[in-house]
Design a protein that fits this description.
The protein is an alpha/beta fold and about 450 residues long. Helix content is about 50%, strand content about 15%. It contains 19 helices and 16 strands. Mean pLDDT is about 85; it is low at about 135-145 and about 395-405.
């Protein structure tokens, strides 16, 4: 908590609002300046340093949203609290996406004003401290994720660097295996909370009846089996980050309680009436389209807006195949250490297969494939046979009908035997073993299909 005096600017065309806010904040020891419109407010901002700004959305002349945009462009570290008399979820989220710290809906009490200003000033201190730490982090650590060279990932990591230095709630979307948890870890590691806990909650794995207890904890005797008081995941993550994976799996009942925890920054253990304050940064992830879940009534709209302040989408690996070479190099080095191997290269046929494969399991499937190939490789390189053993071929398109014309089973068999033979440099014993047939049967098929 901070009680240090700060310089605060109030931009509002209503004199009564300016005077009342000024009186409340001056009693807190703050130095308060006021402006009746956006132009006057921006002029004051050019001349003086303000630690926080209270900004009315409805202003004569220059609209409040435009004033907000200019403030965040020129002074991104200055938290802006938007005052609105027609608060809706949509308008609030719009201003937050434009950079507002939070919003106050008229009429508001002096206590609401004091609390939100205090939080805004705390966020500014944290922001400036994280910026100071950023250089140190950049110098001491490489990006924990291997992102490759694709334009989509370069842009994504730029967003990650910027959002990591804030305390904003992040929603990560993407198919299974794209690295959502790894990205959430990266955001935490680059934030000012990096020395505090990073707590992962798999919302798809927790039993519904115990979900509330897992998240918020419980007191002794609150239900059958509650033999002792238990801290929930939110309390464990206090000061750090909580990662809610597969957030779309939680019930509407738990969604309501999670929304309150996010809004109030406090939780109540099961069986207790006493709320406990928690200071956590929330990152959520899902492989579903939450907007569609909202439309179908499966997910609360207000919670969706609270979680998606900064949405980040991880593209599937098939849409960024140019990143595969960097990922291959990383996974080979990683698994060389793990398996005490010294794989130096990938054969041209194997590389072609890896680049042409669609990777439905995304990065997770690629990493598992390389791990197996490194372990089973008999020399210092990965050959096509090391991949064929796991179902990846140099030309999987022979299974797919060009122009809608399916091949016969004999044609598919002939092509597959040819690929395996080629990958094993004509070694018939090894080819037969991979195909799961005896050598005599293989020789008969080689003769039948004229593969010798």
């Amino acid at each position: 908590m901070t009680n240090e005096p700060a310089s605060i600017l109030i931009i509002d065309d209503e004199e009564a609002i300016r005077d009342s806010c000024c009186m409340v904040l001056q009693k807190q020891g703050h130095d308060v300046r006021t402006a009746a419109d956006g132009v006057q407010g921006l002029k004051l901002l050019e001349k003086e340093l303000f630690h926080a700004v209270l900004l009315d959305l409805k202003l004569p002349g220059l609209e409040g949203r435009e004033v907000l945009t200019r403030i965040k462009k020129d002074s991104p570290e200055t938290p802006v609290i938007v005052i609105t008399g027609f608060a809706t979820i949509e308008s609030a989220v719009d201003t937050i996406k434009r950079g507002a710290f939070d919003y106050l809906a008229k009429p508001f009490s002096p206590e609401e004003l004091r609390v939100i200003v205090r939080k805004a000033l705390e966020s500014r201190k944290l922001y400036t401290r994280s910026i100071a730490l950023q250089e140190e982090i950049d110098q001491k650590a490489q990006i924990g994720m291997v992102v490759g060279r694709s334009a989509s990932m370069v842009k994504l990591m730029d967003i990650v660097r910027r959002v990591s230095a804030t305390d904003s709630t992040v929603l990560i979307t993407g198919e299974s295996g794209t690295g959502k948890e790894l990205l959430a870890t990266q955001i935490h590691n680059y934030s000012f909370r990096r020395n505090a806990p990073f707590v992962v909650v798999d919302c798809g794995a927790l039993v519904e009846t115990l979900f509330e207890s897992e998240l918020f904890g419980h007191v002794k005797g609150s239900f059958t089996g509650a033999h002792e008081t238990k801290h929930g995941r939110f309390e464990v993550a206090d000061g750090g980050t909580i990662f809610l994976d597969e957030i779309s799996n939680i019930s509407l009942n738990i969604q309501a309680k999670l929304l309150r925890a996010i809004q109030e920054r406090e939780i109540t253990r099961v069986g207790s009436t006493k709320p406990n304050k928690v200071d956590v940064r929330i990152i959520a992830a899902t492989n579903e389209i939450l907007a569609e879940c909202v439309q179908s009534g499966k997910f609360r709209e207000d919670l969706f807006y609270r979680l998606s302040v900064v949405p980040i989408h991880l593209p599937p690996l098939r849409e960024r195949s140019e990143d595969i070479p960097d990922l291959l190099e990383h996974f080979i080095l990683k698994n060389n250490q793990k398996a005490r191997k010294n794989i130096q290269e990938i054969s041209p046929d194997a590389r072609k297969a890896l680049l042409e494969y669609a990777w439905p399991g995304n990065i997770r499937e690629l990493e598992n494939t390389i791990e197996r190939a490194v372990v089973l490789s008999e020399d210092d390189r990965i050959d096509l046979s090391d991949l064929l053993y796991h179902g990846i071929g140099s030309n999987l398109s022979f299974l797919q009908p060009p122009g809608g014309q399916f091949k016969s089973l004999a044609e598919v068999e002939q092509e597959y035997i040819r690929i395996v033979l080629q990958a094993n440099h004509g070694n018939r014993s090894r080819t037969a073993k991979i195909l799961g047939i005896d050598r005599k049967t293989l020789l008969a098929k080689i003769k039948k299909y004229h593969l010798a």
